[in-house]
């Protein structure tokens, strides 16, 4: 058996320990779809939630599985087998309409994951280090890499999602302190010695996060306030970035490796797009507060929707002048407007 679909799993009952290898011993299973019935307006009972969590926990897949989809799971926590020890071969993962889960599973250490889609996880307000996975000590100081082969990431229809980070706040503060000490040079070192402390050493810049990410899509995330800074620092192969209906997002900036195109649509709170030196194409639609677009030295084409034509006059001339300075008069920035 190569593929298995299990539907209406909320109707199942947990089985005895003698049946624990229901899926684990399916050595040739490559594709597995685990689905519950789409929920109605009625809330599930505590007994129903507990039951479906137990059912999914018992459906441990074989290690050779390559394609996994979980649909309409209404438990509050994902099964514990969603991680590196049980899914070393998974290349494609889709988590769709898991509306009650409060936290994403720790899948950042899956060694072969290439495509990940998370859709409709409507209870989640924050994506943090738990998404990367558990490790001993600081991930960046080891040989571990987060999402080592992930090429395409889609996050869609997340109405309560507000924060996105890859590291704890304490680590961010340590990074900033280390950077400040390094910039301070001898003065910073002397100040530390006066306090009887060693100056903190800067964090090594190695590609430990999303080194193969090529395309990122964020759609229907109206409360998301910002992109994680590590995205610009570590995702060195990022080529395409789509952002749609992120109304609270105010800036898209400091993505020096983004080398293909950026498309922003329906981002009503967006005010600034800057420091994207390698972006070649920029598509802007219904971002009516976008007053600052700058430091796009590699831009070749600018696509503007009709409703952007007035406010874009605040920054289009500056982009055109920058383009002339960098590329000469014979290569003008192409500005395309459509109705």
Automatic annotation (TrEMBL):
Domain of life: Eukaryota
Positions of region (Disordered): 175-207
UniProt cross-references to Gene3D superfamilies, sorted A to Z: Ribonuclease Inhibitor
InterPro entries from the UniProt entry: LRR_dom_sf (IPR032675), LRR_R13L1-DRL21 (IPR056789)
Domain R13L1/DRL21-like LRR repeat region: from-to ranges: 3-120
Pfam families: LRR_R13L1-DRL21 (PF25019)
PANTHER family in alphabetical order: LEUCINE-RICH REPEAT-CONTAINING PROTEIN 57 (PTHR47186), NB-ARC DOMAIN-CONTAINING PROTEIN (PTHR47186:SF51)
Designated name of the protein: R13L1/DRL21-like LRR repeat region domain-containing protein
Source species of the chain: Oryza glaberrima
Taxonomic lineage of the native organism: Eukaryota, Viridiplantae, Streptophyta, Embryophyta, Tracheophyta
């Amino acid at each position: 058996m190569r593929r298995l679909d299990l539907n209406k799993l909320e109707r199942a009952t947990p089985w005895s320990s003698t049946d624990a290898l229901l899926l684990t011993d399916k050595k040739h299973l490559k594709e597995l779809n685990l689905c519950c019935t789409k929920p109605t307006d009625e809330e599930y009972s505590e007994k129903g939630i507990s039951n479906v969590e137990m059912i999914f926990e018992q459906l441990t897949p074989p290690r050779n599985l390559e394609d996994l989809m979980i649909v309409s799971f209404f438990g509050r926590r994902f099964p514990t087998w969603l991680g590196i020890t049980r899914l070393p071969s998974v290349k494609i993962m889709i988590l769709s309409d898991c509306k009650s889960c409060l936290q994403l599973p720790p899948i950042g250490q899956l060694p072969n994951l290439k495509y990940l889609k998370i859709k409709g996880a409507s209870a989640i307000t924050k994506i943090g280090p738990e998404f990367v996975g558990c490790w001993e000590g600081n991930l960046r100081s080891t040989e571990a890499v987060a999402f080592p082969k992930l090429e395409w990431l889609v996050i869609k229809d997340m109405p309560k999602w507000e924060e996105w980070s890859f590291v704890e706040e304490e680590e961010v503060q340590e990074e900033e302190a280390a950077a400040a000490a390094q910039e301070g040079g001898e003065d910073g070192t002397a100040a530390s010695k006066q306090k009887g402390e060693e100056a903190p050493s800067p964090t090594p810049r190695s590609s430990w996060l999303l080194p193969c990410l090529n395309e990122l899509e964020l759609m229907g995330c109206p409360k998301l306030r910002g992109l994680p800074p590590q995205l610009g620092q570590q995702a060195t192969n990022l080529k395409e970035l789509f952002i749609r209906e992120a109304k609270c997002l105010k800036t898209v900036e400091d993505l020096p490796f983004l080398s293909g195109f950026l498309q922003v649509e329906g981002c009503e709170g967006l005010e600034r797009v800057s420091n994207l030196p390698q972006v070649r194409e920029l598509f802007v639609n219904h971002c009516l507060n976008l007053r600052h677009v700058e430091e796009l030295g590699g831009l070749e084409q600018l696509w503007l929707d009709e409703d952007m034509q007035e406010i874009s006059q605040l920054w289009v001339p500056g982009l055109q002048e920058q383009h002339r300075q960098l590329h000469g008069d014979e290569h003008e920035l192409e500005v395309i407007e459509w109705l």
